[in-house]
Batch of 2 targets.
Target 1
Amino acid sequence: MVVLGIDIGGSAIKAALVQLETGRLTSERLSLPTPRPATPSAISAIFDQILCHFAWEGPVGCGFPAVIQQGIVRTAANIDPAWVGTNIITLLTARAGLPIVVINDADAAGLAEIRFGAGRGQTGTILMVTAGTGLGTALFRDGILFPNTEFGHLQLNGQLAEHFASAAIKERMKLSYREWAKHFDDYLHHLERLLWPDLFIIGGEICKHHEEFFPYLTTNAEVVPAALRNDAGIVGAALAAANNA
Ligand code: BGC
């Protein structure tokens, strides 16, 4: 079965067709900049563009950078506040007339890593952390997702953790990988003190440079890069659609 996976992030929107049995992309990956401001109408227009690009008429799975409860967007840390209270599933389904599932973007990435990637076949507590514009988290116990954790919004050193340790902060503060790793390591230690995961899986755009900062991470739990790299969000979004099909 093939599903169109869409990963809506704070800085880019990526999409591809995904073969669910293998987790492999069966099309090229389309990447578009996230519109600014990322309002419901601006994102809907990009959504139409993506469906048109793939000439797609099948199921769609979408990862979105917010808490999603029964289709309703509850938070808007890195998207336009007009999203809060919007039923994104109703909005997008009305435009496309296709079956659509929407879940949190980090949860989507985590689902893909648990099924096909770094968490495959692993039991215990696994915490996926995606570092991009924000900090996303996905918590699993014995392969079961506890959805909508927002551990990027914990307080750390007197500020929101994602204002201290996201990849965007590295850019904004012009930190070297080594300097930024100190921030990120503080954050992982904070998570470790609270949740005691057996394994951290690190995803998001920064994970393609993991060799640059992994040597400076000092948690007790093992830390591994997302095996699907930045495609995890697309693949996991597609998996979520299949789970609800
Ligand atoms: C949002 C999360 C999202 C994360 C990564 C945070 O700002 O609150 O819902 O998963 O960014 O995009």
Target 2
Amino acid sequence: MKKKLLFLLFFLAFVSPIFAQYTPTAENLAARKQFADDRFGIFIHWGIYSMLANGEWVQNNRNINYKEYTHLADGFCPSRFDADAWVRLFKEAGARYITITSRHHDGFSMFHTAQDTFNIVDATPFHRDVLKELAQACERHGLSLHFYYSHLDWHRLDYPLGRTGRRVGRPTDQQNWQSYYDFMNAQLRELLTNYGAIRCLWFDGVWDHESDAQPFDWHLPEQYRMIHSLQPACLIGNNHHRKLIDGEDIQIFEQDLPGENTAGFSGQQTISQLPLETCMTMNNTWGYDITDKNYKNTDEIVKNLVRAAGKNGNLLLNVGPRPDGEIPAEAVERLREVGAWLKVNGETIYGTRGGIVAPHDWGVTTQRDKTLYVHILNLQDDGLFLPISGKKVKKAVMFNTRKPVSLHKSANGVTILLPEHPKAVDTIVEITLN
Ligand code: GLC
């Protein structure tokens, strides 16, 4: 009898949690809602790679020796870095959160960590923990803080080699998964204990092992459990481009809106019911690239933000700060312009969900309770047919001018007739539903 009881206790304590499905806590569900309400965040790719001004993959792309690469840290001293100025700019842009690279594929930690001296405080003459400064600035200005964290590593010798970072001269005889896994978990613990509330951990890089002969086990559910035990509200997202794994709280799309796959990274078959996020570059690169001037114009960025909202997702728009800590002028200009647009039209974006009329070539709809916002992004006509039962529609006005919009109800929907031809980047009609 005693044996049976002991076995039962052992099972409940150690075995059953392994099979247990993840159940988000109430604070996690609240964080998901807040995240979806926010709709717009800024992604920041910044590291010692920024000094080479050729994107964040430069070490891999140019086969830079892993020891030689560390000398970038010896010279990293971003004299113009001002966390408060960054956060004020992002706020002016209308962003509600930031996602900053805490450690990218090059293995360099942009925060003070006790796990590896290859970090911004111990290995650079700058000696400042920029994540700490950003966390404090976010707190002051009311922005939520998310950390990007790379699962793959081109620096450490214990990282089990994947398909990238193979020509950086690392000895291959010291690979040790357990040691590397312990290292990551210890760093994640630091990130979740020393920087206040982290609204999201944004993982990237598991695809490094996607072409292995044997499936590679990253032990993600255990890692996710640790994260949720430290900060239950922390949202977990993983840029693995695959079906969601138990323990994840949001679904990520790279360079494409949910359901689109022009860049080839977002072939996920199912669009999740969880909050969605599309991360997107402003030019062609994530990390600072001195010759990449191929910036999207502000209209394109606004359209992406609107279309993301209409597809029930957030836009995480990237900036790649320069090595001196300044954000490139082209990015600053666009951020201010997006902010000016949001100041006028933000009500139709923040706190909305994808509307009852599905996305179409002409645009998208967003909705808050009984208010439906029709975002006309591309329409040759002055009239637009919406497949909503006529009984449901009470009235329609132009969002900006409040001018009435005439409605023609038919059996299978309503046609709205605009008082003037749509020429704004986004012409918004506000419909009140019954
Ligand atoms: C890709 C790249 C990485 C970048 C990320 C952002 O996974 O490997 O450099 O940080 O996309 O979405």
